[in-house]
Amino acid sequence: MEGHAPWLAGHPLAHLFGGGTLLAGIFMLTDPVTSPMTSRGRIIFSLLAALYTMLVRYYTIYSDGVILAVLFANASVPLIDRVRSR
Predict the structure, then answer these.
(1) 72 falls within a domain
(2) Domain that holds residue 45
(3) Predicted TM-score of the model (pTM)
(4) What is the pLDDT along the chain (86 residues), one digit of tens a residue?
């Protein structure tokens, strides 16, 4: 199945270091209030944010879906904390 974003066919480093991806990774994902409590939870949180970013970029019309992906990842923090605290 092909996505709606043909502009994503370029080099992966251009997508990583371009646009709001780098700014969101540095300033928004590292917010201590909305990130998980444990270090393993933070790794899971960052992987989820990366996965959501690629899904939003590939399957929607938004070329820079980092902000939406950060919101989705923040919504999953209580579940991550609950699972990781057991």
Answers:
(1) yes
(2) 19-84
(3) 0.77
(4) 455 556 566 666 766 777 778 888 888 888 888 889 888 999 999 999 989 888 887 777 777 778 888 899 999 999 999 986 66
